[in-house]
Amino acid sequence: MTMRPDDHRRKWDKNEYEKLAVERLLNQVAPKEEEPVQRENLKRRDYKVDLDSKLGKSVVINKNTPTSQSGGYYCNVCDCVVKDSINFLDHINGKKHQRNLGMSMKVERSTVDQVKERFQQNKKKMEEKQKDYELDKRLREAKEEEERYKEHRKEKRKERKRKADDSGDLASGGIPDDMAAIMGFSGFGGSKKNS
């Protein structure tokens, strides 16, 4: 390395760059310790996703229309527009959206007590449904019983009427109806028989 005046090549200060390299190594060994972001576990949605409100509606869109009112489904968490309902559901359930909500994609592990409690809740629901079913069944059976009772009463009425007609024929002199019709009279007006 000569210091000639016609030598225009850049000369590097090796000591200075060696110091910079050592500092960089020291910084790499003890980097700034940032705490990892703690995200809560994935949990169930407590609201109903509205997919039907825009179904079958026409919207006029121009260049001044805000993105939230443009065509498709708008996600206000991620500030994006998705064109159809299937992709919107995929987006809502996706990693990016859940991260923006502050959730990880990990699901909380249930304990044995929680599982037993959930079984009890489901059992109570099934018993309520069973009670409702039994109530419906009892109502149906009561209705059928009432119909049978009405039918029975109707039969009894017909039977009484038949007996009354039989005794009425004998009371008119014991002449059969067809014979009375041939003779020109059908009785004394006590019954409303049409022959």
Describe the protein.
- This protein is mainly alpha-helical and 195 residues long.
- 50% of the residues lie in helices and 7% in strands.
- The chain contains 5 helices and 4 strands.
- It has helices at residues 14-29, 85-92, 95-101, 112-171, 177-183; strands spanning 40-42, 73-75, 80-82, 103-107.
- A two-stranded parallel ribbon has the order 1-4. A two-stranded antiparallel sheet has the order 2-3.
- A hairpin with a 4-residue loop joins strand 2 and strand 3.
- The chain starts with 13 loop residues before the first helix and ends in a 12-residue tail after the last helix.
Principal-axes geometry comes out as: elongated
Elements, N to C (H/E): HEEEHHEHH
Mean pLDDT: 82
Q: Enumerate how many helices there are, as a single number.
A: 5
Tally of extended strands?
Answer: 4
Write the layout of secondary structure elements.
Layout: H1 14-29, E1 40-42, E2 73-75, E3 80-82, H2 85-92, H3 95-101, E4 103-107, H4 112-171, H5 177-183
Parallel strand pairs: 1-4
Antiparallel strand pairs: 2-3
Report a brief summary of the structure.
With about 200 residues, the protein is mainly alpha-helical.
